[in-house]
């Protein structure tokens, strides 16, 4: 019989064990080894069946076992120590508090919005890299004491669980998640009733959501859940699953995340006394509507829409994670219009003001679509990509929003992602390092906190990481062999379970005991399976791959995992192609595909591999943090120069797969060229180095690469480094810009922008001439100073409203300026009879060869974050002509 109602019965802990409750409800246990070991000791046999989840484990402990633990003095001593450590962690000053005490102007709080969060496998609210990055961001913010408030949605079905059919076809399963069985607490009002946020929907309907709290160390993570009794069935399903449903469903999810998320933050701050956020960080465009809700909040204070927009922009940071337009959510403008205005959400905010924020006003854009990333950029004064290369790709991709500017000047910077080392470093690796610097210092180093020599973060390796150089070759090799052996055991267990679900009987599966070999070079490849990540590039020449797998003296073995989106049949076909190859009895002991890739699997996979493979189509990988996690465990990278590997590649850390992205070749030919390069690298360089043994039968050169990876690459890939960059480069400036915009100042700024935009058609560069300097003949000597005189029409604006610049640098055959430098020109007189202003200034070329310059006019205001902020620029009508440019040889 089926139950008509479900509820959770919570265990009652004996008084001496009460601290276990707080330890289990704070997700710090997911990255704190001592706390996890405390729970494991409570029931060593039940730890794995509980999926290493303390909440589930406590719910499964018998009354007898609880009584036994309550009388165990040694266990209670460990419990007291863990409880005291958590209290000190939560309340003690950390890096952020030290910075504020030293006088740094930092925000009182930051709200961080993301559609998914990968904090722990026990809270499956993520699909891939975006969510894992968001989880690592929260954990590192907690370690550093950054006052972050996380905001997301609680998906009752999570993403999906993946199994395989007998034929190797991906199958999806959506288990129901009961929040009462997760490490969550319901946020309640002072009277004990559940706190609610409500959104108005067309037709007089409403969308209600409760708020669940996940404690991520010091950081509260607020998750909105629409599965409440006040909602009709359609609205209850809004938060049913991650990235599911059609356009209307996704739009409601993103409205709830952005608009409802701001209201949830306000509720949390009201109930707890937490300072209101001064900065709002939008992790991808899914939460972009948060800016509109904040505009709605400000309009009743007397600000008009434009002034409120300026206030919101000043305190908003937007991070883009996709280098491909197809990865951006876009909605029909009519659908968006139906959900806003006086008949829907955000009354008082005119729909005709909302829709232009998401309009694709660039060449090739579709004006009938509402682009969430475009809105995110327009609602944020500061934006960034997630690696240096991705920043450049993003500037190019969105350059149409800033017409007249070179892509390099588009105001999108980059903060390269990092990973939370305490989560991803294997305990065995941690213990080896702690043996050199001490356990407490090792925790601090992995968390990305301050180091002994702060300048060394920029110029080299922090001294505490140098301690790894003192670890002996034998110790490093024994560690690598131990981790590889653990991976072999884990792979066999998971492979057996997978084949059982595929319908195989026990008698068919004896061969699994021989899968993988702890002494063989092990390559890992695990990620989502969109086509650009090229899961099956390794299968391009199957005979050649078989020869690598079965090489008589230098064999390799490969562990592969990954999920295709449920709607992506092309991705599913790639999975099936890989699975069918791995099912071949000739090679199935050397290559495996493990279904249901997630955090639990990843934490075993990264440390156990010797080489991490990544072969996307360059430059379509925004960052690719899986290789960072592998590197922190001494795994070497074998990757296309994309994402983070493009900026931090070094032959001491691994190998670069040559790419054909600059060649005029079709996709098929490109795959052929790059797969051949991959095979050659493995065959000629990677495998020989692994098997090249020196004194003591040790691969000396391989071990040295492992050591270099840990010492020199390790400090760079930390999420602590990433979060500190966000604080110093984006959060602090955003808070300062927001504080500067008092209502009257914001109104003045909005009116100034409106005046500049209205007058800009009349701004022009009318005349440029060289007053002194021998440039008439098309050349000048190095070091010579050219005196320039420029006449500018300002269209009714004043000189204080603009900046006039010379832009100069090397020129190519088409006279395009590269490596440009800018020099200001100063007003040299009032208006002439033709209403033009005179500007003058020097230009001193600093390099030989083809050289050129042009002149431009930009809006100028002390509250602009960059001169490109308005997307307005006036250039000479001709790039050449009198004074329009000069070449020097």
Automatic annotation (TrEMBL):
Similarity annotation: Belongs to the glycogen phosphorylase family.
This protein's name: glycogen phosphorylase
Catalytic activity: [(1->4)-alpha-D-glucosyl](n) + phosphate = [(1->4)-alpha-D-glucosyl](n-1) + alpha-D-glucose 1-phosphate
Organism: Streptomyces pakalii
Cofactor needs: pyridoxal 5'-phosphate
Function in brief: Phosphorylase is an important allosteric enzyme in carbohydrate metabolism. Enzymes from different sources differ in their regulatory mechanisms and in their natural substrates. However, all known phosphorylases share catalytic and structural properties.
All copies of domain DUF3417, residue ranges: 13-123
Swiss-Prot/TrEMBL keywords: Allosteric enzyme, Carbohydrate metabolism, Glycosyltransferase, Pyridoxal phosphate, Transferase
Transferase recorded as keyword: yes
Superkingdom in the source lineage: Bacteria
EC number in record: 2.4.1.1
Keyword Transcription: no
């Amino acid at each position: 019989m089926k139950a008509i109602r479900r509820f959770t019965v919570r265990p009652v802990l004996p008084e001496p064990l009460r601290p276990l409750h707080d330890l289990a409800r704070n997700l710090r246990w997911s990255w704190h080894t001592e706390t996890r070991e405390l729970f494991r000791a409570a029931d060593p046999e039940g730890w794995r069946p509980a999926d290493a989840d303390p909440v589930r484990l406590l719910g499964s402990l018998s009354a007898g076992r609880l009584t036994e633990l309550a009388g165990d003095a040694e266990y209670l001593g460990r419990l007291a120590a863990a409880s005291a450590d958590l209290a000190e962690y939560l309340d003690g000053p950390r890096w952020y508090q030290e910075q504020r005490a030293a006088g740094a102007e930092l925000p009182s709080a930051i709200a961080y919005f993301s559609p998914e969060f990968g904090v722990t496998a026990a809270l499956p609210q993520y699909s891939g890299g975006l969510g894992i990055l968001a989880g690592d961001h929260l954990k590192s913010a907690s370690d550093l004491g950054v006052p972050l408030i996380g905001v997301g949605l609680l998906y009752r079905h999570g993403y999906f669980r993946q199994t395989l059919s007998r034929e190797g076809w991906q199958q999806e399963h959506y288990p129901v998640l009961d929040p009462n069985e997760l490490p969550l607490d319901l946020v309640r009002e002072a009277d004990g009733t559940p706190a609610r946020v409500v959104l108005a929907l067309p037709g007089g309907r409403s969308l209600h959501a409760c708020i669940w709290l996940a404690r991520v160390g010091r950081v509260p993570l607020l998750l909105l859940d629409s599965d409440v009794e006040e909602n009709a069935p359609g609205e209850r399903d809004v938060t049913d699953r991650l990235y599911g449903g059609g356009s209307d469903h996704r739009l409601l999810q993103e409205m709830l995340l952005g608009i409802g998320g701001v209201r949830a933050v306000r509720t949390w701050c009201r109930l707890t006394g937490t300072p209101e956020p001064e900065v709002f960080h939008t992790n991808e465009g899914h939460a972009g509507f948060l800016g509109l809700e904040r505009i709605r909040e400000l309009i009743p204070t007397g600000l008009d829409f434009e002034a409120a927009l300026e206030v919101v922009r000043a305190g908003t940071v937007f991070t883009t994670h996709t280098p491909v337009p197809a990865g951006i959510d876009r909605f029909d403008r009519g659908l968006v219009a139906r959900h806003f205005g006086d008949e829907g959400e955000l009354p008082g905010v005119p729909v005709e003001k909302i829709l232009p924020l998401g309009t694709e006003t660039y060449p090739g854009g579709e004006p009938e679509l509402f682009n969430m990333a475009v809105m995110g950029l327009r609602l944020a004064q500061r934006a960034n990509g997630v690696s240096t290369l991705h920043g450049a790709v993003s500037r190019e991709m969105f350059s149409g929003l800033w017409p007249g500017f070179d892509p390099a000047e588009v105001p999108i910077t980059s903060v390269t992602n990092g990973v939370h080392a305490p989560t991803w470093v294997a305990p065995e690796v941690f213990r080896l390092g702690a043996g050199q610097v001490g356990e407490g210092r090792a925790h601090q180093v992995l968390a990305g906190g301050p180091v002994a020599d702060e300048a060394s973060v920029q110029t080299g390796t922090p001294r505490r990481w140098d301690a790894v150089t003192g670890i002996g070759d034998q110790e490093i090799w024994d560690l690598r062999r131990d981790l590889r052996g653990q991976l072999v055991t884990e792979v066999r267990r998971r492979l057996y379970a997978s084949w059982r679900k595929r319908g195989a009987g026990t008698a068919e599966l004896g061969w699994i005991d021989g899968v993988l070999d702890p002494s063989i070079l092990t390559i890992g490849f695990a990620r989502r399976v969109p086509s650009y990540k090229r899961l099956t590039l390794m299968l391009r020449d199957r005979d050649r791959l078989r020869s690598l797998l079965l090489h008589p003296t230098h064999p390799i073995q490969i562990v592969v995992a990954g999920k295709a989106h449920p709607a992506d049949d092309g991705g599913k076909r790639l999975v099936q192609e890989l699975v069918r190859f791995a099912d071949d009895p000739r090679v199935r002991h050397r290559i495996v595909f493990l279904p249901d890739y997630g955090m639990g699997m990843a934490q075993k996979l990264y440390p156990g591999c010797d080489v991490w493979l990544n072969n996307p189509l360059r430059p379509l990988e925004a960052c690719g943090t899986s290789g960072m996690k592998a590197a922190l465990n001494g795994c070497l990278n074998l990757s296309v120069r994309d994402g983070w590997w493009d900026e931090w590649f070094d032959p001491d850390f691994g190998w670069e797969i040559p790419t054909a992205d600059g060649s005029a070749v079709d996709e098929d030919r490109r795959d052929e060229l790059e797969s051949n390069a991959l095979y050659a690298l493995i065959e000629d360089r990677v495998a020989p180095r692994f098997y090249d043994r020196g004194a003591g039968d040790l691969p000396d050169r391989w071990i040295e690469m492992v050591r270099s990876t840990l010492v020199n690459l390790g400090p760079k890939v930390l999420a602590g480094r990433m979060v500190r960059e966000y604080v110093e480069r984006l959060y602090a400036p955003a808070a300062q810009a927001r504080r500067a915009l008092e209502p009257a100042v914001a109104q003045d700024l909005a009116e100034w922008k409106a005046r500049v935009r209205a007058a800009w058609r009349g701004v022009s560069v009318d005349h440029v001439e060289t007053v002194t300097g021998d440039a008439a003949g098309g050349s000048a000597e190095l070091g010579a100073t050219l005196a320039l005189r420029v006449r500018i029409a300002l269209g009714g604006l004043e000189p204080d409203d603009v900046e006039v610049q010379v832009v100069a640098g090397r020129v190519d055959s088409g006279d395009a300026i590269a490596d440009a430098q800018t020099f200001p020109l100063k007003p040299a007189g009032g208006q002439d009879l033709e209403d033009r202003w005179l500007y003058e200034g020097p230009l001193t070329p600093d390099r030989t060869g083809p050289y050129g310059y042009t002149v431009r006019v930009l809006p100028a205001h002390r509250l602009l974050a960059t001169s490109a902020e308005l997307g307005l620029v006036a250039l000479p009508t001709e790039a050449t002509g009198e004074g329009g440019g000069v070449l020097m040889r």
